[in-house]
Write a structure and sequence with these properties.
mainly alpha, 192 residues, 79% helix, 7 helices
Length: 192
């Protein structure tokens, strides 16, 4: 029986072409456009997901899972979390116009995410032509629907798991918060 030492590849030095690409002004414009549109679409997306979970499905556990994930994303300042939660509850409770505005803003800002992302990725991958405006809009709309459905699916699966744990063990103790957060992240990874 012989033992062999596994081959370990040496790390490659950074590609000079990548470094040159990162120093171009265009790259920072793409990154800023993507980040700005993500920030613009975050609150409307939360309003929409919370509206579906609370008003359409009537599932309180799913609403709590959304707030659990939000608490994990925000800095650990209780006042900030309470401020955001209070404003989200007010937006979801208003129904009607705010939800329609959230859908419209979400569609607009999400398209703003995918267009610079496509142009940047085309440039990185060496494609010379971008999609036409209408094909890009159609693709962006499809991606919005798929991504939203996957986020909702992740939330609902986590809420179902949380409900199952409560049915088996009774009311969950304070320690169960980290368990629910771990399940949310575990479900989100394959769904993403």
């Amino acid at each position: 029986m012989s033992f062999s030492i596994p081959y370990r590849a040496r790390p490659h030095p950074p590609d000079p072409q990548t470094a040159r690409f990162l120093y171009q002004t265009e790259v920072h414009v793409y990154a800023f456009a993507i980040a700005a549109n993500l920030l613009l679409s975050f609150f409307p997306f939360l309003v929409l997901i919370l509206s579906v979970c609370q008003n359409l499905l009537g599932w309180r556990s799913a609403v709590e899972v959304v707030y659990l994930g939000l608490g994990d994303l925000l800095p650990s300042d209780p006042q900030l979390f309470d401020f955001v939660r209070r404003n989200l509850r007010a937006a979801v409770a208003s129904r009607g116009r705010v939800e329609l505005f959230s859908v419209a803003l979400l569609l607009f800002s999400s398209n703003g995410v995918f267009l610079p992302l496509e142009v940047a990725l085309n440039r990185v991958w060496g494609f010379t032509a971008n999609r036409s405006f209408w094909r890009n809009q159609a693709l962006s709309f499809g991606l919005i629907l798929v991504c939203g459905a996957l986020a909702l699916l992740s939330t609902l699966l986590t809420a179902a798991n949380r409900g199952l744990l409560e049915a088996v063990r009774g009311p969950l103790p304070a320690v169960a918060r980290w368990r629910s957060l771990a399940v949310l992240k575990a479900v989100a990874a394959p769904v993403s």
